[in-house]
Every structure is written in C-alpha cells, then in structure tokens.
C-alpha cells in the first residue's frame, strides 16, 4: 500500500509553529516511504477563512521547504460531496432526521446542568418513523452506538478506549444543508486516499466521532498517529505569551529553513541521541514509533544552536540564495553585484558561529558597507591618536606585502612588536578601520576578502 499523508490547516490565521511541525511530520513520513504528501485547505469557516491566510500558509510551507503533491484542495469546494454522503447514511438507516430546535436543545442542557446530569443531547427523533415527521426544518444526525466501548489503535498513543455512552448523535448536515467539519474531514480523507492521519493529540477525541462515519460507510480506516502538542518553557501550551509562534515570524527573525526543519523534527521525535542531521537523514530515519507521548518544550537556545550548525555546514552559494530570500521577505534592499561577490569570497569567515541571518549579515558589515567607513561608538574608542599613528605606519608596509595570510600576519606582528604591544591590541584599531565594528571576523580574513587596494584605502581613511 502506497503511503498518503495530508496536512489540513484552517486558513483562519497564519501557519502556527505547531501546525508547521505537523506538516513536517506528514511530509517526512510520506517522503521517507516514497508516498504522497497532500495539502487540503479546510476553509469551511467562511467568516474567518481568508485568501490572505491561505497564502500565508502556502508561503510558510514553501519557506520550510515542504513541497506537496498536486494542487492544494479546498474543503469548502467539496460541500456537495459531503452532503451526498450524509444523505447516503440517512438512506441506509445509519443516520436520521432530527427536528429538535436550538431552543429545545438549550433548554434540555440547562435542565441537565441544574440537575447535575449529563448534558449529552439524546434526540427524541432517533427512532421516529418518516410518516410521523413534521414539515419543518431538520438536521441529519448519525446514530451513535449507545452501549459498549470503542477502542482505536494509535501509533503514538497506543490503544485508546472510549465509552460509547459518551458519544453523541453528532450532526452531519445542518438545517441549511451545509455539512459539518467532522463529516467533511472523513469524506475528504477517504476520497483523497489518505492512509495515515498524523495530527495533534487535541484531535484524539474527534477520532472516535469520525470513526462512526467510517464504520457506517464501511470504509477502510487510516492509520492514526496523534502527536503531543508543543509547550512553552513553562510547561503550558505554546502561545504568544512565550514569544513568536508563527512560521513567518521565525523566517523574519532569520532562522535558516534547514535548521528550523531539524529542530522541529526533534521536537517530539527522536532517533537515538542524534541532534544535528540532514534532510536526507531525517527522511531515512523518521518513523511513527520515534514520536514520544509527552508534550515537547520549545527551547529557543536549542533552535539557535542547530541553526548555527546548519549555517556553518551550508554550501556557500545555497546560503547566499537563502540570504537573498531573507532580505526580500523582510523588505530589505537587495544585494548589489559587488556585495554578492564579496559575500561569496568571504562566506568562509562569516558562517562560523552565526546562528541567524541577521547575525551573519552583521558579521558581513565590512563587505556590505562602503567607504568612508563609519565606526560605531564601541569601535570608535579604538581609534585614538596613538592608534591612528600606528595604522599610518602599517599602511606603507602592507603596500609591499604579498597578499597572503602568513605575510599579512607577519607584517602586522612586526609593527605591533616595534611598539611593544601584543597583536591583539592592534586588532581593535584594525577592526574599527576596516569594518567600523568591534566584533568582526579575523582582521586577516577581512583583509583577504577586501583585497589589497580596498584594505589600504580604508586604513588610509582611518589614519588621516
């Protein structure tokens, strides 16, 4: 059997990081098994579903590199098919017409709350023959089992049992003829050939209600895997009080997609003690039995650590492409051809220990800025009169140096020694002159990346 998974977000908001992880798990499982990963937009909430939110979800998945098979489908567009199944269940006696009004149902619940009895509504119309039906609006309800228990096997949660007397005769079709979400999900999953439903464990109770439709229709049931939710550091469900929660927010903060995929994969799933791994390894290793039952806690420091490792391990050209995409996504100016060339030359000195793209770009300030170099407050302190004098002495010696790291180190070291100072003491003025920053790559890396002409020009500017 070919594996088919799906991600089915509601376009009532942007892509939440929890939804992104659910999509990632579905994508990894499908790709690792040579199957299909489908995308369904569950846009039945007409009041809150917007094209802008749908696009935000698509953009978030695209940024994360989670490609889907075929075109995204719309749940709302399939309403006629959902209604057809409700009518089929009615015709086979697995569902019934209920004429109870909302007022009658609310009165029943108010009385039940007052008497401290179950508020689960039991419709008086369940077994009333068609001949006795009034000419009035009605909903179609499924006939839930009243006795015994239902046990569902879940690949993460194990065997889960629900008492059937806690199942309601849920509505399938509203009085206006529109289908409910519970029915739509089952019909769509069946029609799309979904073999594995991987979703948050907040849907576990829904599985028992949806199971009634599978049983009544005699359809094959998908394998279930309900994954724990993501918690914040305080052990509570991840929310905006913990900081960023949307995929777009993490993109805007400059986290690389590969690092984000790696971190989200490890958030609730494990492969031994492996922390850092490639996409290929994740696809090969990922399986449902590696998902834990306990909620995972979002740890920004771990995310940054993994992102730093992915930046360091990235191919220079690929990293440059990601930088361009980051600048475009955050509305920053595009790189010039000169800046692009400089970044490619200097990437080896930039990507070590940079955890995000803003950090990398800050390290690359010496490449991205133009003369005259404007020193920030901290680095400007290193350019006093004594330091300027030493730089003016260093400049002519560098004019005659061969432009190699060893030669540059030798020239700078000899000047420092002549002034009875350690090489590190001269690094501060050099950083200020070359980059206008106190924290930069090695001064020798900067000289090599900038080249002899630009290096000498910046030193002359600073010593003037």
Number of distinct helices: 20
> How does the helix and strand content classify structurally?
mainly alpha
Which regions contain 5 or more consecutive residues with pLDDT less than 50?
A: none
Question: What integer is the average pLDDT?
Answer: 95
Measured distance between first and last alpha carbons? 75 Å
Helix content: 40-55%
Largest sheet: 3 strands, parallel
Q: Hey, roughly how much beta strand do the residues contain? A: 5-15%
Number of strands: 12
What does this structure look like?
With 464 residues, this protein is mostly helical. The protein is built from 20 helices and 12 strands. The strands form 5 sheets. Strands 1-2-3 form a 3-stranded parallel sheet. The longest helix is centred in the N-terminal third of the chain and has 16 residues, at 17-32.
């Amino acid at each position: 059997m070919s594996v088919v998974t799906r991600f089915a977000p509601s376009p009532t908001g942007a892509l939440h990081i929890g939804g992104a992880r659910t999509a990632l798990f579905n994508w990894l499982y499908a790709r690792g098994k040579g199957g299909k990963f489908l995308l369904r937009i569950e846009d039945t909430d007409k009041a809150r579903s917007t094209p802008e939110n749908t696009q935000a979800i698509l953009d978030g998945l695209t940024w994360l590199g989670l490609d889907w098979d075929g075109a995204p489908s719309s749940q709302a567009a399939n309403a006629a098919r959902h209604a057809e199944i409700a009518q089929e269940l009615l015709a086979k006696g697995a569902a019934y017409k209920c004429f109870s009004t909302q007022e009658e149902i609310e009165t029943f619940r108010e009385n039940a709350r007052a008497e401290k009895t179950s508020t689960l509504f039991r419709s008086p119309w369940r077994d009333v023959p068609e001949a006795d039906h009034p000419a009035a609006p009605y909903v179609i309800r499924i006939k839930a089992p009243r006795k015994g228990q239902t046990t569902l096997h879940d690949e993460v949660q194990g065997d889960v049992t629900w008492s059937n007397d806690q199942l309601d005769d849920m509505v399938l079709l509203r009085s206006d003829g529109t289908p409910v979400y519970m029915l739509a999900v089952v019909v769509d999953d069946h029609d799309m050939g979904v073999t594995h439903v991987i979703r948050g464990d907040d849907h576990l109770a829904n599985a028992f209600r949806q199971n009634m439709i599978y049983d009544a229709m005699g359809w094959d049931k998908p394998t279930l895997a309900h994954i724990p939710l993501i918690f914040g550091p305080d052990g509570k469900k991840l929310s905006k009080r913990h900081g960023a929660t949307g995929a777009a927010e993490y993109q805007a903060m400059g986290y690389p997609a590969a690092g984000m995929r790696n971190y989200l994969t490890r958030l609730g799933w494990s492969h031994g003690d492996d922390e850092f791994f490639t996409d290929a390894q994740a696809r090969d290793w990922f399986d449902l039995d590696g998902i834990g039952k306990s909620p995972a806690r979002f740890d920004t420091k771990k995310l940054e650590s993994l992102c730093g490792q992915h930046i360091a391990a990235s191919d220079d050209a690929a990293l440059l492409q990601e930088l361009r995409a980051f600048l475009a996504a955050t509305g920053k100016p595009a790189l010039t051809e000169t800046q692009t060339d400089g970044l490619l030359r200097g990437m080896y000195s930039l990507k070590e220990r940079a955890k995000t793209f803003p950090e990398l770009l800050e390290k690359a300030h010496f490449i991205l800025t133009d003369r005259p170099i404007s020193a920030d407050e901290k680095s400007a302190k290193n350019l006093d009169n004594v330091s300027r004098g030493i730089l003016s002495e260093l400049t002519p010696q560098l004019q005659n140096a061969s432009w190699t790291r060893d030669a540059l180190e030798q020239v700078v070291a000899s000047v420092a020694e002549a002034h009875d100072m350690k090489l590190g003491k001269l690094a501060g003025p050099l950083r200020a002159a070359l980059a206008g920053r106190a924290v930069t790559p090695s001064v020798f890396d900067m000289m090599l990346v900038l080249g002899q002409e630009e290096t000498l020009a910046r030193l002359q500017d600073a010593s003037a």
